[in-house]
Write a structure and sequence with these properties.
By secondary structure, this protein is α+β, with helices and mostly antiparallel strands. The protein is 42% helix and 16% strand. The protein is built from 10 helices and 7 strands. The strands form 2 sheets. A 5-stranded mixed beta barrel has the order 1-2-3-5-4. It has a two-stranded antiparallel sheet with strand order 6-7. The radius of gyration is 19 Å and the shape is flat.
Length: 212
């Protein structure tokens, strides 16, 4: 899908980072937690580039994790070349990245039910999850997200979170969306067309009533 929408270069990097123990990537020394957090905010923007060990030290990044991610990316890149899959860059068009991730990880969707609480497709309705406080989306609290993993402490937190539009699931995973629409809040259903029929807001409300 990433090659189809034109963001395979970006997806190579994202998959490599997620495969290389991403939780160890950002360091938070006890005596320099505030400074480390400020450096981390630099990566809220896409303009940064990895250059050297000194650069990693300056921004409190784990060099070994990045080195592992680089090796994984090279391996994945070689696999694409062998399969003759064209590598393309989206040139900072994050919509293409969102579509690629949503189309492949649609089962890891979560939607907001209150200010900070979310339901996932697989979680019980009385067991909401939260966006991890370390995420740049923690304060933004978007309506719909895709998460990579869930960390359970006293509460359940989503880690590595990406904001998406529900329409991406509707378009690229229509069979799953049919099931999803039975539990989504009506304000996220909207009017949509499926391959085998059409539902509107009122249909979604009916499905919700039947489900509960």
């Amino acid at each position: 899908m990433s090659a189809d929408v034109g963001c395979s270069e970006e997806m190579l990097t994202i998959i490599a980072i997620l495969s290389a123990q991403v939780d160890k990537l950002f360091k938070r020394p006890k005596k320099k937690k505030m400074e480390a957090d400020l450096k981390k905010k630099t990566f809220d923007c896409p303009e940064s580039n990895i250059t050297s060990r000194a650069w990693c030290k300056e921004f409190y990044l784990d060099w070994k994790t990045l080195e592992e991610a680089y090796e994984i990316r090279c391996q994945l890149s070689t696999m694409l070349d062998e399969k003759k899959i064209q590598r393309k860059s989206c040139d900072d068009d994050m919509t293409k990245v969102q579509i690629a991730i949503a189309s492949g990880s649609f089962r890891k969707i979560a939607w907001k039910t209150s200010r900070y609480a979310y339901f996932t497709f697989s979680s019980p309705r009385d067991d909401p999850v939260l966006i991890h406080p370390s995420s740049v989306l923690f304060t933004a609290s978007p309506s719909v997200v895709i998460y990579n993993s869930i960390i359970k402490t006293k509460k359940a937190y989503m880690s590595q979170v990406l904001q998406i539009e529900i329409e991406y699931i509707q378009r690229y995973a229509p069979n799953f969306y049919r099931k999803l629409s039975q539990v989504l809040p009506y304000n996220l259903c909207g009017t949509h067309t499926m391959e085998d029929g059409q539902y509107d807001v009122y249909d979604c409300v009916s499905l919700l009533q039947d489900h509960y």
